[in-house]
Please model this.
Amino acid sequence: MKAVITTFFAASLCIAATVLTSFVQPNDESTMKNTNTDDVNSQGFAVVELFTSEGCSSCPPADKLIAKVQEENAGKPVYILAFHVDYWDHQGWKDVFGNRDFTKRQYQYASWLKLETVYTPQAVVNGKQEFVGSQEPTLRNAIASGLRTSSQASLTMEAKRDQNKITLNYQTKGTGNSALLQLALVQKVAQTVVKRGENAGRLLPHVQIVRQIQTQQLGTNGAGDAEIMLPGNFDPKGWEVIGFLQNKSNGEILAATKPELKENV
Model:
């Protein structure tokens, strides 16, 4: 597997995502009825990871879709994480949220899910199912399935902010020996005026933008503390932390939570 996707192949995959999406019928009433997460009542959860880029013309519909899903599922255990990859940056526009670490995470999923390569927009739900990120019925089905499936693991977390860092205390159960704690620092909303590249001249709105992610080994008995260092532009009202447990062998996400961010007084 190549370490970095080529420009031509990236463009081809972005176009392919558009073609695939054209066959989806998101307005099919019977399909939408069957995938309505309002009908789901269980102890499950859904972690939705979208790999996207401001440099890809097929990505804005996927960004719009996760914003819609985020709004519709407010108050439910649905956790949206938008990872902006960096392999489109040389196409004329450098994604202001792009990060090489997020590209590496996407390649890790390619390994876990036995994919030949990566593409945008790509959605991964609970670390187990991947598909073109703008396919609305598929996304809704994946979320509904996650919410219906009770987890054998659990994660609870408390978070306090003190000047330039967030201190977290976590407790886990039922994880086994193969789980890692993933901590994502998320900016809730932003928008960018793109001046060059495939989306030149467009105002692109974004939600749930991952600004950094860190991996932590679980402490003794599955409990412990962690710290997240904060960037200078951190706003406690506009940012949040999402934590989740992930099987390091196959990528499956076992549990997730979003702690209330408290001020350390």
The two ends are 50 Å apart (CA to CA). The mean pLDDT is 87. The chain is about 25% helix and 35% strand.
